[in-house]
Specification:
Elements: H1 2-16, H2 21-29, H3 31-42, H4 44-60, H5 62-98, E1 106-110, H6 117-123, H7 137-144, E2 150-158, E3 162-169, E4 172-177, E5 183-188, E6 199-201
Parallel strand pairs: 1-3
Antiparallel strand pairs: 2-3, 4-5, 5-6
Helix pairs in contact: 3-4, 4-5
Length: 203
């Protein structure tokens, strides 16, 4: 009966999907469950366990045999569930970190006045089309924080495709002139090197 139903299943799959990526994906998805079924339900485990179970029943009786079956079935269910969850989570993570569904399409920068959006995005190494989930947000924050005007920065993912950069800048406390009346430098609070600050032209 099992073989007949399997043939009917394959017939309908071929009829509905034909030969293509969808059919291949279906068969690949069932590879692991079929492997576990062959190992624990139809394979070496059942061949080894059935004789032991018969001998155990002859020696200990029906009640003890049922208890043994319950314990073994619980253990097998836990093992199969753990393996299925582990591999499922692993494949899910691979899909999420490679899927175009989570490609970066929009970057929003806020809080900046002296630094420009382009400077901060370029400094963070952010490119449109990158996978949003696989991006190292902390590394991006450290890179942007090296900008001379940036005091603090927070980078946040917004699934499926948006990234926000919130910046707090240093406060300019003075203008420094080095002899040329048409060129001045902004000095920022905190004793930072004025040569690292943005250049300011004006009277």
């Amino acid at each position: 009966l099992s073989r007949i139903l399997g043939f009917v299943r394959d017939f309908f799959i071929a009829r509905a999907f034909g030969a293509g990526m969808a059919t291949d994906a279906f068969f690949v998805a069932f590879r692991l469950p079929n492997l576990l079924r062959r190992m624990f339900a139809e394979g070496a485990f059942s061949q080894a366990f059935v004789p032991i179970l018969g001998e155990y029943r002859n020696r200990r009786g029906t009640d003890d045999t049922r208890t043994l079956i319950d314990h073994v079935a619980t253990l097998l269910a836990l093992v199969v569930a753990f393996v299925a969850i582990f591999f499922g989570a692993n494949e899910g993570w691979k899909w999420a970190t490679t899927s175009p569904t989570f490609s970066l399409r929009d970057v929003q920068v806020s809080g900046q006045a002296e630094a420009t959006d382009v400077e901060l995005v370029r400094l963070g190494g952010i490119l449109l089309g990158q996978n949003l989930i696989s991006m190292d947000v902390k590394s991006i924050e450290r890179s942007i924080a090296t900008h001379p005007w940036v005091k603090s920065v927070r980078v946040t993912r917004h699934l499926p495709s948006r990234l926000t950069i919130e910046v707090e800048e240093h406060r300019a406390v003075a203008l420094l002139s080095l002899g040329k009346p048409d060129e001045r430098f902004k000095l920022v609070a905190g004793g930072r090197n004025p040569d690292a600050a943005d250049r300011h032209a004006g009277p």
